[in-house]
Write a structure and sequence with these properties.
The chain is an alpha+beta fold and about 600 residues long. It contains 17 helices and 21 strands.
Amino acid sequence: MSQTDSTEESPVPADERVDVSVLVIGAGAAGARTAIELAERGVDDVLVLGKRGHGDAHTTWARGGINGALGTHDPEDSWAIHAADTLNEGHFVNDPDKVETVTEQMPDRLRELDEWGMDFSRTEDGEIDQRFFGAQSFRRTAFAGDHTGESMLTALVDRAQELEIPYRENVMITKLLSDGSQIYGAAGYDMDSGDLVLINAGTVVLAAGGYAAIYNRHTSRDDENNADGPALAYEAGAELMDMEFVQFHPTGMAVDEDDPEWEPWSGRLVTEAVRGEGGRLYNSDGERFMERYSPDQMELDARDVVARAIAKEVAEGRGTDNGGVYLDLSHKDSAFIQERLPRMYERFAELGVDMAEQAVEVAPTAHYGMGGVAVDSHGETSVDGLFAIGETMAGVHGANRLGGNSLAETVAFGVVAGERIADRVDGPGELPDSIVGSIAEPHFGDLQRLADRDGEYDVTAVFTGIQNLMWEHAGILRDADSLQTGLDKLAEFRRQATDLTVGPITSDSFEHAVDIGFMLTAAEAVLRGARKRTESRGAHHRTDYPETDGDWRRNIYYEMADVGRMRSYTDSVDSPSQEVQDALDEGHELDYHQLE
């Protein structure tokens, strides 16, 4: 990697230029695993960029577990049954090839993480322990207490440091440099110094998260999952896919938002592991209501099923004062809860609630975008040299993600993308003057004009306005009129976004102003796709089209048309391999009552 003063190399108003063969945008599990694969294959000209501090990525908030058919407790499990469960949960609009890529790899990926020092919970025999998770036929979710993501990222970062992989923190990428068919690099700024950064890169990997935080009630950390990755790819000429499928996790924290101690926790994830360890859901009448909705799988049915059940209980007047229901684990011993769910126990204890004695209040919350960037079997987009992996990509999860598959996807596709890039990498490439003049230079000018702008509209008001709009018009229950109203309102927010009052380039308001542009792209795709898909499937539920339509076993793609308009089209879904089809035909299903 080389760095030179931009005044010598380029006429753009950048303070710094970087030349690198492979740029990885995003320093969570997907980005780290890609960089590790590249380093292990001898590619040393790699730079990993994160917009937060080193090791501080959203991966750390993934608590429940990571899937892989190890068969620790259930030796009859297999990668093919794991794939079948994933397709079932995704309501068969997943890309079967991508599903099989993940599930075939995962036993090896789990053993690899173990070798790298991940702090897995263990059985009495010292094996990697595995727990039940919603909609899975067997116990295949490996875990580290209820801090799996944190422990996994620690292991990956330690491995990356052993390999001396270059990393840079607190840099936000705001534009990809592309002519629509090939990638040339990226532009952004140093969030600490405010310096503008120009990056020449022959290959770019987007591992920048998803878009669930375009909703006002979400499980993401503040200022993350605002659609950076999907929007950057779309603006560079790549297609998006399945954006209408947004998973609402059944159990986010339901709190009194007038209480300053509790308000910051609104919507934050109460991991599925609580239900995986036997947690029960009750309404305000004391009924264990999942008996009505899913008598066989109960609280461990698919996330969309449980989320809609909770929403219905609340809508029909059987919810708590804070708009939720009760999640109760008090029938378990305190020592068991503290061993298996230490972070959850500590969180609620600090708020004055003992999970061994009291139920906690939960309600659905936006958690994960199943859609994202359309990629091929190696994670590459239609733009040559531009890859998208992890939550930024689409295809693995279909209409609803199987719990424990998000962390699995990050490491599996990190390997796959790394393999492909290592076979092709050939230096930083040339950054054409035409790209500099037509894309980089105008973009840096836009960033400079955005800073310290005195406009009519407040950044926070527009930011939260978009989030409120999405919850109201593209939430758990949708219909055509509401979706169209959402699109109309979004057009007004798009207008307001051109006239914002913004602070200096190092301020939070500047970052949020950039985020608003990303959010507008993702929000439009979600609303348009949800209106176009005239059926209910998985996490997408249309009250005016409540049934699943076999003719809609198709993916919706989104592409940029002339003059910046978004255009969509559909394509059919492929069939799984014979081995996975056999597993589907066998009809494996969780016997929830093993937990009772």
